[in-house]
Amino acid sequence: MKKLFLFTAALSLMLFSCKKDSTNNGSTAHVTVKMTDAPGAFDAVILNIKSVIIVTDKGEQTLNVDGGAVDILRFRSGRDTVLADQDIPAGTIQQVRLVLNDSGNRVIVAGVSYDLTTPSGQTSGVKLNVHDKLTAGIAYTMRLDFDAAQSVVFTGNGKYILKPVIRAIATAASGALTGVVSPAASSPKVYAITGADTIGSTTDATGKYYFPGLAAGSYQVKFVPVSPYAIKTVTNISVTNGTVTDMGTVNITQ
Question: SUPFAM superfamilies under this entry (predicted)?
Fold first, then answer.
């Protein structure tokens, strides 16, 4: 019992210094929306983005953008900027809409600033068809790849209009880990450990545990049950991006 107490205390200190406990959330995916750009022959292309709307088979989710106007030409050759960051219900993406504010959109050419007319962007939003699946517990990066050279059009009468050419690509940026302990009455605290990082979780009434948003890598999973059950460690558990790793049933003995 003394060893058990010391071990539990040590794990508590590790958790305090590393990461917060995970939650058993099996219904949402975390989405970070980023924008990048292909080069265009302009000094700047400034978009005043209001929100990003993600439509899935679970409904419509609005992700507000609080960063103000963005010069998208600053984010090219592999660079990007975060527009929004939010949990949304897991499901299949049907459409992404980029909604712009009514003013503040402009293009700068040879040092001269011109208003950028975006008739379709302020109301219902610029529509992008996407058909990626968001798995619960997985973190995703939604990258909006804006092609400025094709998107900004000179009308011939001193005006520029925006006809957006954008690719939306969703990429899994994490994995998840789940399983069940038996018996459920052992009620263990569960720790997923990789390197110097430790993430803690608990089991529910059925013995299930769930770690969403884990970085890809090899983990040891440690179970610290209530007395009189014994501590158990399972090693070499592989977590990969875009996948929920199921450890199956882990038996806890006395």
Answer: Starch-binding domain-like
Q: Does this model's pTM top 0.90?
A: no
Q: Give whole-number Cα distances, 131 to 55, 134, 169, 216, in Å.
A: 10, 10, 9, 24
250 contacts 230 by C-beta, under 8 angstroms: no
Pairing status of strand 197-202 against strand 44-47: unpaired
At position 75, the amino acid (one-letter code) is F
Give the strand pairing for 28-38 and 139-147: parallel
* Residue 220 · residue 235 · CB < 8 Å: yes
Residues 6+ apart with CB under 8 A from 6: none
Report CA-CA distances (Å) from 209 to 142, 175, 177, 178, 248.
28, 15, 8, 6, 11
> Which residues sit opposite 189 in a β-bridge?
202, 224
Q: Are 127 and 97 in contact (CB under 8 A)?
A: yes
Residue linked to tokens 């406990």: 21
**pLDDT digits 0-9 by tens, 45-73:** 999 888 999 999 999 999 988 777 889 88
d(CA 159, CA 170): 34
Query: What phi and psi, each to the nearest 5 degrees, are found at residue 74?
Result: -75, -15
Sign of the alpha-carbon dihedral angle for 85, 88, 94, 95: negative
Contact 181, 232 (CB under 8 A): no
